[in-house]
Amino acid sequence: FFLCAQWLLAMLRTMMMRARPAGIRATALGTARGVTAHYTAAVEREPTYKYQPTLPALPVPPLEETCELYVDTCKPLLSPAQLERTQQAVQEFTKPGGIGHELQERLKARAEEKDVACPRRSWLEEWWLDGAYLGFRLPCPAYSNFYLLFDRVRPDLSQARYAAGLVAGVMEWKALLDSEKIPAEKLRDGTPICMDQYSKIFTTCRVPRRGVDLLRSFEPSRHIAVMVRGSMYKLPVVDSNGNALSVATLEATFEKLLEEAPPLPKIPLGSMTAAHRDTWAEVRESIYADNAASFEDIERALLVMSLDDATPSSLDEAGKLICAGQYDTSMNRWYDKLLGFVVFKNGFAGLSGEHAPMDAPVPGKLVDHAVKRIDSLGTSSPNISAASAAAFSPIEWRVEESTQALVNAAVFDTGLMLSNIKLRILHYKRYGANTIKSCTPLSHSFLLCSSLSSSMHDSNATRAGES
């Protein structure tokens, strides 16, 4: 079984090495994630999904090539005796009529089935998502989710106005995506790359299941979810005519929510999304029948906007509160959502995202647009009042006392876990990405050397991790 698993991983590496266009140097991390970092937006404004119908399906690499790469990968890790045994096992694996050829034929059949059921659908995607993300049982924050810390620090803006500008910017970008005005992306040699992840950014949510979680997909909604001190609210952001709410209306609404939200939630269910995935799955399963509408409201939301009472004093502290948190952070998050914006009281903001549906560069494009919207904001909107706020409704939960005790315990347990995470952001200006990418054979060797150097020359052992 171990050899078969290693064969599959080696085959993936072979496939990525073979599929890489000439002149493109893909890093190990980039290929493992299924995406290279070396792409640029098309110069021409080509429609977002223009090339989707013509993209080639993911190939199944030849068995011999996969096994050859597997042996080459093992060489630096094994003793001569171990390597000899490995080579003998590979020979047995690949002999005519052996299990290797049987598995290879099964893979080819799977690839054909996937292509018939959904043309150009990857035969590997489902296995990759389950193995790398959805089957991973440790909590999403700190272990799986990504985070983005915005460089627009605006202490001159109220918390409500900053949040309103972000949501307005997101809705502008969504309108561009809906009309396919986000340019199709290509590699440097002009080869188009898959844009499928863009179609999932507003329509996907992770749902806990025992053993392996589920990625739930649905049609785009017209509302967002807002979290204030652990309480949750459904806020429609598109009116009956299909127009997005204005910055002024959003600001007034967020101000009203900040005023009306209680100091503590009745049921801090958000903390469960930071718990062990099987624990969260059991709780969700036990309360779903009585709370189906509430789950629909938050899971189908375009995004979650968390308005935090915290006032971080630095980028390090703000980053930690978004990436991880402190004792009461988890109750004001829904870590299963891809777009989980966080806005603090003093002008810091960022995003915590569930990683399974896509890699961070995709929502990064959205964030680039949204934060630019912040640049255009004045310090206040004229005639802001509660009367101009949009209608919203609370997202309420009904649970038994025993479940309430589990949820309350999750606030403490996840708070302890998140508080134990350290973050240090280093701004190094002597050289940047281009210099690091010029290192051969892999730019990751530069990072490895930097980490080793830090470990050797700094008495504080934690510095190596911070590097």
Q: Can you tell me about this structure?
A:
The chain has 16 helices and 11 strands. The chain has helices at residues 2-19, 28-32, 63-74, 80-94, 99-117, 125-134, 140-143, 159-178, 247-260, 277-299, 315-323, 361-375, 401-419, 433-437, 444-457, 462-466; strands spanning 39-41, 146-149, 185-187, 204-207, 214-217, 223-228, 231-236, 304-307, 340-343, 349-353, 393-395. β4 and β5 (214-217) form a beta hairpin. The two termini are 37 Å apart.
Topology:
Elements: H1 2-19, H2 28-32, E1 39-41, H3 63-74, H4 80-94, H5 99-117, H6 125-134, H7 140-143, E2 146-149, H8 159-178, E3 185-187, E4 204-207, E5 214-217, E6 223-228, E7 231-236, H9 247-260, H10 277-299, E8 304-307, H11 315-323, E9 340-343, E10 349-353, H12 361-375, E11 393-395, H13 401-419, H14 433-437, H15 444-457, H16 462-466
Parallel strand pairs: 6-8, 8-9
Antiparallel strand pairs: 1-3, 2-10, 4-5, 6-7, 7-11, 9-10
Helix pairs in contact: 1-3, 3-4, 8-9, 8-12
Short synopsis of the structure:
The protein is built from 16 helices and eleven strands. With 467 residues, it is an alpha+beta fold. Strands 2-10-9-8-6-7-11 form a seven-stranded mixed β-sheet, with helices on both faces. It has a two-stranded antiparallel ribbon with strand order 1-3. It has a two-stranded antiparallel sheet with strand order 4-5.
